[in-house]
Structures are given as structure tokens and as C-alpha cells.
Amino acid sequence: MLSGCMGVGSGSLDFDSSVRNAPGTITLGDTKVYSREMLINERAADIAWIDRLITASEDPTKTVFQPTLIREMEQISAFAAALGARFDPAAGVSYRRSNETGEILQEIDVLKAKVALSQVRRDIEIIEAGFPTQTVPVNTGLGTLGTGGALTTGAAMTPPDAAQVAATVNALISSVTARLDAAASPIAKTDAKSNPADDFRDRLAYRDMLKAARNAAGLDELHDAGNNRLIRLNLQATVVPDPDNARALGAIQVEIAASTSGGTAAYLGSWLRAANARGDWRVDTATFKPNNTLDTLEDSGDFARTRIGSFLTVMPVLVNESGVELAPQDLFDRAEWTKDDVADNKFFGSLLAELSLPPAEMDAAVAKVCQPGSLHSFALDIADARTKSYDLIRSANLSAGDLGVQSPGMASGAKYQRAGDYQKQVFGLIRNRPDCAALVARYAPDKTTWRVLQRPDLGGAEQVRIYEVGPREQAQQVSTVARSANSLALAVSLAASAPSAGVAGNLGAGFRRDIMNRASALDRVPQVVGYSVGGKKKFGWVIGPHATTNAKGQAEVRQVAKSYDLSVDLSVPAWWTSLKLKAMTVWAPSPQKLVSGTLGAPGSETDLTVPLTSAADFQSFTQFLVRDSKRAVALEDVIGGPVTGCAATTLLLKGPNLWRAERVMLLGLSLGRDAFVIAPDMAGIIVTVPAVSAIPGERAYQLDDQVHILTPLGPASKKFEYDASLSGENCKPKPAAASDADDVTVTKAEPTTFVVPSLVEIDVTGKNLGKIDEIRLDGRRATTAKVSADGKLLTVEFSRHTSEGIEQGTVKLEFFVKKKSVGTAQTIRITRE
Amino acid sequence: MPEGTAKDLGTPWWSIRDDAGNPVARFDHRLFPRIRNGARVSFTGPDTNGVATNVQPAAMVARYTLRLADEATLSDDRKLQLLETVMRELQVAGNEAGEQRQKRLRRLRTAIDRYEF
Lengths: 833, 117
Fold this sequence. Notes:
The structure holds two protein chains of two kinds.
Chain A: H1 2-6, E1 22-23, E2 26-28, E3 32-34, H2 36-56, H3 68-83, H4 92-129, H5 162-181, H6 196-217, E4 228-239, E5 250-258, H7 261-277, H8 292-299, E6 303-308, E7 311-316, E8 318-319, E9 325-326, H9 328-335, H10 341-354, H11 359-369, H12 375-395, H13 400-403, H14 413-430, H15 437-443, E10 449-450, H16 456-459, E11 465-470, E12 473-477, H17 478-496, H18 504-521, E13 524-533, E14 538-543, E15 546-549, E16 555-558, E17 562-573, E18 578-587, H19 591-596, E19 605-611, H20 618-625, E20 637-639, E21 643-644, E22 649-654, E23 663-666, E24 669-671, E25 676-678, E26 684-689, H21 694-703, E27 706-711, E28 714-719, E29 722-723, E30 745-750, E31 753-756, E32 760-767, E33 774-777, E34 780-781, E35 784-787, E36 793-798, H22 800-804, E37 809-817, E38 820-832
Parallel strand pairs in A: 21-29, 31-38
Antiparallel strand pairs in A: 1-18, 2-4, 3-4, 4-17, 5-14, 5-18, 6-7, 8-9, 8-10, 11-17, 12-13, 13-14, 15-16, 18-19, 20-22, 22-26, 23-24, 23-27, 25-26, 27-28, 30-32, 32-36, 33-34, 33-37, 35-36, 37-38
Chain B: E1 3-7, E2 13-17, E3 23-28, E4 40-44, E5 54-57, H1 58-65, H2 76-94, H3 98-113
Antiparallel strand pairs in B: 1-2, 1-4, 2-3, 4-5
């Protein structure tokens, strides 16, 4: 990770590697939370895409591997062509030769000029020797201005033309920029072929890479083990550069602290309420039946069957502040909830009367309170148990209504108030008495907590797994920097050059060569790199300085004010209602501390509490509590249908862990992942079943009328509806037949949803309903049926006993006249209690 | 004399359960510290507050009441007198130790043998 930064070749692009561990000036915003459902669908889409790539990789015409060397050659020659032969590395020799020839010619020119100069000087001397004898002027018209030109030079230097230089440079800039911009353009076709062995190795490596990516996109078996769920946290980090650490790395390290215990306790309370509302858990003591789950819960030591009144419930074992465990049954037995209310009132009332004395007599009276066997100590025992058991009932959200009875054993608010009031008053009297120390220590109102809450895997960070820290690596393309820096820096360079430097074009080319070197040497400078520290529940990001250009046109790195979108995928217990994070930011962190997860910089810590929506279902939470790691797959309900031969049908298959399905089988068909999607609540899958004609559908349905879901955790099956009559010609709408006035017609049945076992009463509307002599619901005969005088309303009843045996799902309400089916069968939806 | 099973509820105030497991009385274990959790006990009461005022191991009580070969022929009143005497003396002996306790129990046995209860 860091080596990527350190590997930067150019000196000016190196970050400042000195370690200072200075407090970071990086702010972290509130987190956004995305659900498991969204992540799983997102990952499923990625997997589907990678799967397509893997499949395509099998076909040599779809995935072509070209030797890298050819690509490099093409790049070099294309670049050279773009710049012209003068800058073509392949033409370097000829360029150097022409350079040398030019120099010799230049020397000849110089020597020629020197000879010419000597000749001119001798000629001048001869001419000057004849001056004394000359009497008549040689030149006439000296009084007028004219162009000189008595002498000519052999090889004069041409001064540089600024416009010409600018044009040349601009052309060069354009060609360099165009070439760099064209980096992603398709590679020109080549006749070069790779041999089959190379192609195989390339293909194998490519497929391995794809498979690794597929595994990364997939989710391992642990992401939802122990009732965990996947969430994504998004954080916005804003870097405010610190001038003292402008070229240093920044680091954000986040520690997963834990869930807030309040949320877990609230969830436990809801779970307990649901658990105690279950008929097979909360049983009448007279009809008590063994229950494995209850046994296992009790074996864990965290819960215990507790008899409240005449009912057995499951209650948590409590622990007080001293670590002493309190069995819930003991609490309820001590609380004397069943005591007659009048007697209870007298009991506490008379005890308080004993203490309603003048101050002079109080001391002796209070001394008696603390003696063994005193009724006051008995009352304190009751009051202590009453307040604790009442709190327990309240935290479990239980009421007599929940238990389905008005049990005389249930706690009453009046008794609770009475005991609490007594406890408060007596403690006020005995709190500071040495002879009452034992009693005070025993019954001091202290806070109790559920023993189960002390389980480290319930609220601790141990349950959290860090899945992916994003971005894994967000890099800045330095070639981009070079490209953008190119024009500006070159212009600056040229502007600073003396006009006499006729080699300005060459300087520019040299500069560009440097740029090219950088571009090839420094592909990417990592800007944000995510990391996690295994086993320490810590993750974070390293923020690298930004590559940019300085005023001199040189590339350099420095931190700039910038916002980053960071994310992390976590697997957290599904019942957590919040997540606590401790974040800290550091400039110039110690690499050793960073990788060991021990970064620290005073003053840069931030505590973040992320509210979560609890998504655990009570059944799986119970499994977690009893440490049952088995993840059962069940197909509980099939909604939709029937499947026909006319058109595709959509079925919603509901049940736990069905979203893991790999294949769905029905009617002899095997449907793959492309035929179904995961339901938004992940409680099932939505399958699109193609039309299956009566042949072979009818025969297949006779042999197997179940839909089978195949998952890595095992299969699940349930009956579904198939209507073979809707096939072929029957798919076309028929002209309405003239209805016989005496025919039975059923238009509607209401209501269409029932919870069984219960008395099921259905109103059927239609015509001539009085002719119906038999009505069946899921094959079960109606208990009673009454028809209105006009024959348009039929009220049908199925007794509780009759409805008891009806399976959950959709069933048919059918009508018969003399054993022959009449009217249109109605669909009724049944839910079992 | 009612009998039951002592049940430690985690505080000084224990419970006495009947054979069906229903709580029938409470007692302060500090007054009868030799009673073990789950022990079969004979007890006096409960009073109007549900408190057993004397709780003794049932076997110990039986050891004294069964000294009389013709115990079965006693009238109910006499049987009750015998039980109350045994319970009272055992309660007092419970707070004694050594020779003093032995002496009291010897005196109790003698009193029973002489029908002096």
C-alpha cells in the first residue's frame, strides 16, 4: 500500500516520509448507512457481469490476447511518427550523424569566413598603402544618403524568428498532447500472432483474475453467520491541509467500538415478548410439553423457565451490580404478587405504622427493623423482589394481555408502587446505621441487568467483520498531470529562454522527453488507499498528497483541500440498533503504528454513533442465542400463480435463506439466476416461470407438484398451482356464451384472507346460489351455509375444528351441485396462527 | 404440623414449598441457619403474613415424635402438644451448642418418654 507511494520515481513526486503523528485536520461527516439488500443486489449484478466475462474468455474471438511487446512497439512508433523523425528514438542515429555533419560544415563555413576575412584585411592594407598618392576622390555623390554594401560576408547567422519558434513549439505541443491523449485509442491491427501456449497462459491468468474478482464480489459464508447482516457505511472526509504537513500522508483510522447496549436490550425485550407470545413456549403449566429450544435456552444459563401465575414463561436471568445472579423464578416467588391486595396493603401499612413514632422512640424501633426475623426485613425482601421483577416484566414488554389471560399472578402496578414506597422510606431510616449494614447491602436498590447482555458476542465488537474498505485504491493518473502541466510548463520554459537560443525547439523537445519519462515511470500516484487491520476491528484510509505543478512548472505533491467519499462494508449483528465508531485522523503517521492499528494523535478523535435499523428476525435470533449455527432453508409460502401454458407467471417464494438460491426447479424446468431476483426484504425470491403447455406440463405436474429451490444450504420444496387447462387454444379469449338464467354464477367471495384455526365465515355473491348443495374449502366441507331469499348471497361457515387442518397458503373455495363443480372457484388465502 | 421443602431464594428469606412445588410459607433463614436448601422441614404457621415462625428439619422432629411406641394412639390435641414441644425445644437448641445443646435434647427425650409434654 505504502510502497505504491514510495515507489514514485521522481524526487519531486515523493511524499514527505518523516513520522510526526501530528493531529489530523481531516473532518469526518455523519455516516450514511446502506442496507444488506442493496449491497447483495449490487454484488449480484457484479457477479453476473463477471460471469459473462468469464464465459466470453472461453471464446478466442471474443477475448483476444496480443503480445505486450507489439503494443509497446506500436506505441513507440506511433509516438515517434507523431513527433516527427527528429524526435523518433529509432531515428536517433541519423539525427546524431546529421548533427555531426552539420558541425563540420559549420566549421568549414567558419574557416571560409576566416580566410575571407584575412583576404579582406590584406586587400584593405594594399588599398590603404595607395592612399598617399591618390589626388582625385574615387566616390562621387558623398553628400547624398544611400545603401551601403561595399562588403559581403560568406555565411551570415540568421537571427531567430520569434513567430517561427512559437509556431514550431505549438506544433510540438499539439503533437505531444495528441499522442498522450490518444493513449486509450484502439491498437492498430497487427499480423503478429501469439502461439497457443502463450495464449493459453494468458487466458488462464485472465480467467484467474476474473475468478478472484468474482469471489471478491461474492459474499463468503460468514457474512450472515450468527445472524449477522451486511451494511455499508459511507463517510465524507474533508481534508483541510496543514501547512506543516503539506507533503505528508494523512491517515484516518476507525475503530469499531461496540453496539450501544440500550439498543440491544430493547431488541432483547422485543424478542422476549415475541418469545413469550408463542403458544408452544408460553404454556399452561397443566399442559406443559417439552420444548427443545426452551431447554437449550435454559441450558445456556441466560434464561430460565419462570412460572407467572399459572403460566410458564421464559425470563432472563438477572445479574446485580455485585455480580450476583438472580433467578427470575426466585424473584417472582419472593415478590408475593399473588398475595391478596387488601392483606398486602395492611401488611405494608402496619409496618409503616410501627415506624410512625416520635423522634425519641424512633431509634429503638428502627433497631428492630434490622434484626433477623423481623417483619420489616421480610417486607424489604418482598419490596426488593417486587421492584426487580416488575422491571423485568416491563423490559420484556409483557402484560397480562400478552399472556392471553388475566392471570392473578401478574404484577400489579398498585403492589409495585406500595412496595417501592415502603422500600424508599425504610431505606431512608436504616441507610446510615451500622447495625443495619448487612440489610442495606443486601437490599439496596441497585441496578440489575440481564445476564445475557454480558455475552461478549451480543454487544461487543467481536461480532463485527470488516468486509471491504472502499476505495481500495483511488489513484491519480500522473500522466494526466504531466499532460496538463505540459503546455503551461513548456510555455514558461520558452518564455524564460533567450531569443538567441535558436535551439528553443530542442529545449522544448527535451522537456517533453522528460515529461514522457515521467508519464511512463509514474503511472499512478495513490491518493486514497483503504486498509483494515485484521483481528483488531479497525479500518481506515491513507490519504496521499495530490500531484500538481508548482509555479516553476515542476510537478510536485502536496495535500490540497478536498473531499473524499469513503465507504466500508461491515457485517454486523442483525439486532444491533446502533453502532459506535471511534475515528481519529493523523498527519505523517508512523507506518508501524498504522499497520498495527495503534495510531493515536491527541485531539483528533471523533466518536460516531451510527443508528441502524434492526433487521433480525426473532427465529434466527433465538438460534443465535442458543448458539445454533445451522441455517435452515425453508419455503414457507408460494404466492402467485397458477402457472399456465399461456404466458409467463411470476411467483413469490417466501422463506428464510431462499435468497441464496442457485436454481429453481418445477414442471421439469431448471431455472437459473437470470430467472429470479431477490425480494426487496430478502425474505424470498421472485421467480418468472415461462409458460408451460399442457403437454408436457400436465404430466410433469402429476409426477411432481412441488417447486424446488436449490441453495448451497440445502433444498426447500412446496406445492404450487399449475393450471393445465390454460394452454393452447384455451389461451385465446372466448366469445361470451349466452348464460343460462338458471346457471349458478359465483362472482365474488369475501373476505379472502383468514388466520386459522378460527371460525371462517365467507360471504359469496353471485346468482342462483340457492342451488348449491355442497361447498368445500381446501376439500373440507362447510359447516353451515345460508342463502339469501334472492339467491344472490351465500354465507358459508367453516368451524374452528374444520379450519384447523387447512395448510397455510392459497386454497380453493369450490361449489358443487349434485357432486358436480359449478360456478367459479374462489381463491382464499390462509395463514396459520 | 405442616411439612414442606425449604427453598433458598437467594436472600435471607427462604421459601417453603408443598409437594406440588407451590410456595406455602416464608422464613428467615438467619433464624434457622442449619436448614439446608432442599431439606424437608416441619414448620409452624404460616401466620397471617405468610411467615413460618419455627422451621425444623422434618427428620429431626420425627426422631423425637416417634419415640413413643403408642404415638399413633395419642389424641390429636396430645399429638399437637407433642409436636409443639418438640419444635419449641429444637428451636431453642438450635441457638445452643455443645454440652448445653446435648443437655437440652436429653431433657426433651426424657420428657417425651415420661409423657411430660
